[in-house]
Structures are given as C-alpha cells and as structure tokens.
C-alpha cells in the first residue's frame, strides 16, 4: 500500500526493496536470453520464447506492452509466478526453456514489450522485445468506433472493457478505454453469455461452459444437459464462491440459476419458479396465474448479483422485478419493481415489496443488477414494460442507470443516483451499468434509438468519480444485441497469475507507542483448514524518510497466541531467523533498528502482535501483517485489527488494508472505544469516528455512531454490532485495492481505540 494524501499523514504497508548482496545477485548471475517468438491464437497474442541458465532462482516474469502514442489508458501488463509457468507447461525445468504468453497486443502494429525478470533475492532486470502482429479482421466493428468524445486525461479507475456480444465467432472482446481492440475470444463460436473470473473468460454455448484463458487456451469445464439445462443465456456473474449462470431448462424458460466453481462443479441451484410458487401458495394465491412453464417467457432472468453482506442473491427479472432471496434457504427477502405490473396484484408477492420514496422511479425493465461499494443496488433501467405478463406496467421513452438505497426496516427504496442524459437515450433491451471504484461507472446503451435493424447504434460512456464523462464511443449494433449486449470494466494493468482472489491480504496500523496500555497492537485471525505463513513488521526509524516526526527509535515486536503465550519477539529485523526470506520477498525494512519476523505455518486461530519501545522509548510506529501466498493452502486472514492511542493532529489511529488483487469483497470496518474498558483497557476513546479512504486519498465512507449508518441492519444481522452506540461501523462492498481507515476522537476526544476489518462470508 502507498501513501495517500488526506488531512493527516497516512502511512500504509509498502514493501521496500532490499538486496543483502551488494556485489552479486541472482539477476546478474542468471543468463536469460530471448530466442524468438511465435504467433498466438489471434493477432492479439504472441508467445515469446526464452532460455534461462537457472530457472530455480526465478520468482516471476512480467510483460508490459507500451501504449500507442497519444494513449491515455494505462499499459496492459501481466505477471506470471514462476511456479505458474511450470504448472501450465510453459517452463521446462530441465532445459531452462520458457514460453511466455503475451496477450493484449495491438493488431497490425509493432508492439514494444518490456520483460521484467524478478528473482528470489529481490533483484531484477529488464529486457525489451518488439512484437509485430497481423491485422485482425473485425467483423463487429469494435476497431472503428465513432468518437463522440475521445478518452480524456481526467482520472478513471478502469482502463479496459470486456464487451459481451455474439456478433462473430470471436466472442467476447476486450477494448481499452482509448477505443482500441486488444483481445478477442478463441473458442470459435458466438455467444452473448460471458463473464470474467479467476483471470479468465468464462463463455457459455448451448448447455456447456468453456474457460478461455487470456493466453488463448480453451477448456470445456462442464456440460449441464444432464441437469435438464438446454442452454445458457444472458449474464455470467460472480457469485459467493464461483460464478452464477442463467439457464433455460426443459421445463422453464429463463428462470433457473446455477452457481459453479472455476472448474465447473455445480455448487448451488435456484429454481425461481418453485421459489415464487411456494411463496404464492403460502400467501394464499394461485401461482398458476403468474408462473408458467416453457415456452412461456414469464420471468426473463437476465442477471444475478451476490450480496455478501447478508448472504443473498438479487435476481433481475426483466418481466417483473428485482427479487432478493436468501442464498442458503431460497426464502424471498424483498422485491423492488413497478407496482403497476401484474406481480403487484398478488398479496403474497406484494408483502415483500419496497415502497418507493417520493421522487424515486421504479426500475421497469432492468438489466445488469449489481451491489455497489456502499451496499446500494445499481441497475440499468431500460424503461421497457413487460412483454408477456399483463398488465404490462408503465413504459418510458428513455433508459437510465439507477442506484437505489434500501431501508429494510422501513421497507422503502430511494433512488439516489441516475444518468438519464436529458432523457435522450432509449435502450429498451439489453444494456448495462457497473460501478468499478466508487462513483466510476461504465454505461452501455445497446440501442440509443430503440431497436431499428438494420441501423441501431450502441454507445459506451465512462464516468469518473467527479461525474465527468471520460469517454463516449458509438458503434453500429446490428443485428439486435449482438455487438454490445453487456460491457464490464476490467483491470488488466497488472494481472497476476495465479489470481489472488478478493480477500484481506494485509493490515498496517500506525499509532503512538507509549507505556502501559498505550502500546500498538495488531490482531489477526487465520481461518480454514491449513496453516498460514506471515511476515510481521514494526517500523519506527524508517518512517522518518516519509516525513513522520517523533518516530519510535527502536521498536520491539512480540507475537502472542490466543491464550496469551509469547511465540516470538524481535527488535532488530536482521537478527530474525527469517531475515533472508524477508529480504528476498522485498519486505526488508530499510533501517536495521526496525523489527520484523517470519512466522511459518501458523496454525488456524487468533494472534496478537504488540509493538513496544525498547527500554521504554516512546514514539510513532507502524505495525504490519503480510500474508504470504502459499499454493494449495486454503486458509485466509478473516479478521485483522489494530489498537492504538488517539490524540490530536497526526496522532490518530490509522489502519491500512488490502483487498485481494481481483474481484470485490464485502468488509465490515469497526472503530471501538468505550467498550474497551470492559476488557481492562485504560483510557478508552469515548467517542470514535471512522473514515475510509481509497488509495488516492478520496473519502469513500464515514461514520460516527454505528446505528446511524444506512447499513446498521447488516451490521446487526451479521453479529458485528458494537456494544456501545457511540462506536462506529461501516459495511462496504470494496473492489480489489488498497484502503485506509482513520480513527479520530469526536470533538477532539483522546484515548485508546481499536480499528477492525472483517470479511463477510
């Protein structure tokens, strides 16, 4: 994690390079030669051939493609762990031969590519190669947009877009935000149904599911015809564990969903016809008046969002409503939709309905439902009424993305954001909107003038967190939704192989170390069946170079287990038994007086690290926990916390945390003060306030008293409610990235506080 610019000096976890061998290192001692290149499955992919004199010292190889002159999008880059190359058959340990897939190249262009070789001792070096590519025959027109607005230099959180469309046998496509085509599918058939998961494209065709790796490899992961599934349609969305697919069966049209893992194994199934029929019978209504068997399109499911905060799925039914059901029990939790449609005539369904707040419009033909970072609901509202159910409900002559805040206690839904562009764009079918980082949106209008085949047009609009339009491109969308059915933001600026999923990876806590109870404490919980390896650090002297005054001159780091037994202690990091490992993994502090320790194979359980000053010294310190990835081990850091003393000015409690490298994660962040007294902590902070910042220093959420937050019911339901009403808590659906939580005292209060970050399963 890096420094962020907010009103106090924030220091988050930042690995520092260190090489213990000043005169010789593995980068100098290893000979790596580029021996050639071969074309990949498409012009956007090339295989670079290397030979290495010693592959055992390699940690990873990264490729970075230099953007074309005038480009704004960040460079596309991928980093392959050495063991990943071996596991995939790209590296021969005996001969030292390596095949490095480079994807995302510009077609018909001489691409300058930089290779970065990183070694186990922390050293690295680079080499350049020029890769010429053939011209790709683009039958869909992605290479030739009409630039209604070129990409501006204003900040935007994403730089790549996966567009889903069945306009050719190269489904789907990836385009950068400059408007350049950078990748196409290699499965050889057209399909609108695609998703991005585990650093690969998952594509449905008929009753089968395929995985397309970015290097072009295609694998059939499942054929689901034995489950009665005839074909998959619409979206593939990220679920609780794997991906959720929308299915047609021999009995019901577009009203069945299944979740499968990355290997295609079925994890869960939801038969919406059965779920709704059961609820209607329980409420005294006849489901035969609303639920129909195939071929009747009574439901028309087009997307699903998993909400980790309350373990539910939200299903978008274009014909009817948004319906939320419990992930495990399939019980209906709520319904949001147009009350002039047929569903609202049934009391058994109406009892689950939200009331729209004054000034709020209901979604009436929605697609692409998702849960935003602040636990609101985002949909693309097509404005199209029902085409099967009667009464069909209202209809509008325009379409607009809409975001809703739900109050589960009052059963009200409030529209808090929309983008209707003066009600000038009408997209009656398909379309999508997604929020990447907070308030950074990608909007896809599949039809900007209704369905007019031939001659319909599609538009993609990118909005940044200031509400500014970062780009606006237009494409011919003929026929139907096949060119631009749905579009999602992607992060290909530095993809890691293997993928590190959305989980808490790291915590850093900065605070003042004094005496007695006023020390700096980090806690963490390892959950799962396997042990975990971590690196712990306590920095003091090295903070001076970052502009922090009054630093702790010589930190002492101690680690305790859940019973309070001391496991290990360290005061000067170079004396730790794991010092070499720490240095080789770029985690070495840059001052010998800083503390660090390697703890291999910690058993699942709760642990506490305490930072004190040597010989009673006082000052500001930074305590850090780093998760070390171990292939094949399945334990996670599920709770990380930091405790310190909050006073005025820069002397606040600052906790930094990282959420994975891909995907998103729901977290609960708490700031405790008064309740610490019951645990024997002296001088607890009487009224903590909590503010969350992203890696750019922008405030994304804040809270003073937890019961005042919009998501207090989620906090209570999931067992995270603080015991004191003056304490703070936030529920956030965060994309992968680095974040900082700052705890201050309300009205200048001082005292000991605890900052906690929990993952919600």
What's the gist of this structure?
It is built from six helices and 48 strands. The chain is mainly β. The strands form nine sheets. Strands 35, 36, 37, 38, 39, 40, 41, 42, 43, 44, 45, 46, 47 and 48 form a 14-stranded antiparallel beta sheet that branches.
3D structure, described in words:
By secondary structure, this protein is mainly β. The protein has six helices and 48 strands. It folds into three domains: 31-132, Immunoglobulins (Immunoglobulin-like); 146-496, Neuraminidase (6 Propeller); 500-759, Jelly Rolls. It is 5% helix and 45% strand. Strands 35, 36, 37, 38, 39, 40, 41, 42, 43, 44, 45, 46, 47 and 48 form a 14-stranded antiparallel beta sheet that branches. It has a five-stranded mixed beta sheet with strand order 7-6-3-4-34. The radius of gyration is 27 Å and the shape is globular.
Category from helices, strands and their pairing: mainly beta
- Shape assignment: globular
Task: Return the domain count.
Answer: 3
Mean pLDDT: 89
CATH H-level superfamily title of the largest domain = TolB, C-terminal domain
Task: List strands and helices in order, with pairings.
Layout: H1 26-29, E1 32-39, E2 45-52, E3 58-65, E4 76-81, H2 82-87, E5 97-103, E6 110-119, E7 124-132, E8 146-149, E9 160-164, E10 173-176, E11 181-184, E12 194-197, E13 200-205, E14 208-213, E15 218-223, E16 229-238, E17 243-249, E18 256-260, E19 266-271, H3 272-282, E20 301-307, E21 312-317, E22 321-326, E23 332-337, H4 347-350, E24 355-356, E25 366-371, E26 377-381, E27 400-407, E28 412-418, E29 432-435, E30 441-445, E31 457-463, E32 469-476, E33 486-490, E34 495-497, E35 504-513, E36 520-527, E37 532-539, E38 555-561, E39 566-570, H5 579-584, E40 595-602, E41 605-613, E42 619-628, E43 636-646, E44 653-672, E45 688-693, E46 699-703, H6 712-717, E47 728-745, E48 751-759
Parallel strand pairs: 4-34, 24-28
Antiparallel strand pairs: 1-2, 2-5, 3-4, 3-6, 6-7, 8-32, 9-10, 9-33, 10-11, 12-13, 13-14, 14-15, 16-17, 17-18, 18-19, 20-21, 21-22, 22-23, 25-26, 26-27, 27-28, 29-30, 30-31, 31-32, 35-42, 35-44, 36-41, 36-43, 37-40, 37-42, 38-39, 38-41, 43-48, 44-47, 44-48, 45-46, 45-47
